[in-house]
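User: My collaborator sent over this chain with a note saying "see what the structure looks like." That's all I know about it. Can you take a look?
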Amino acid sequence: MGLLSILPAGAAMASTVADSTQAAPRFNVGMQAVHFRFAGLGQIGSNGKPLAYNGLMPSVGYRFNSRWQVEVAAVWRGKKAEGPMTVLDYPNGGLYRYFDTYQSYAVPIVARFSLLPRQRRWGVEAVAGFSILHSLVEGNRSMTEAGQPVQPFQVSGFTEANDLPLALGAALTYAPSKHWTVRGEGRLNWSWMGSVAGAVLFGGVFLPQTGVSAGVQYNFGLGL
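Assistant: Without extra context I'll predict from the sequence alone. Here is the result:
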């Protein structure tokens, strides 16, 4: 009886060890260098062209299994993103200057599906999701009377806009180890909300905009 009572305890301990191994964290963090465009609400510059996001995009993700994971990232554009300046010299000697600044951020939320078995070092992913996007466009003007020192710029008005552009793309991955993944990606971002509003109000739509990124991802835990 003593031996029989020890065996189930040993089996339970082995089961606990196995369960703890399976319960290893599946989270990951990453950093990508991106060049994204979002043609849509608040995303068109003074020259009529879509504005660009150039910089680093941090991300966090969670892998459900060997094929599926979800990722939340963030990318932003600061006030220093200035549009072209308009300068008018009046016949009476006055001077008028005007330019816009574009400040916005986007939070892409995407699902990644591995098209190849995860055990391989090289992989291909399908990417689909959307972005939460908020933009602020401020007008800055300086009006100088004739014979007066040039006046500094002041904010003369602003416009805010929100959008939910859809994202669709593909990525090529390389895993030098179970903890690290290197990724290069191409993506299309399409403003469906802006296109609906544009079709109703102006008779036009916004075309999908291409975006590219490259970066690394660190995978916590022992893997799947």
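A starting point for your reply to your collaborator: The mean pLDDT is 83.
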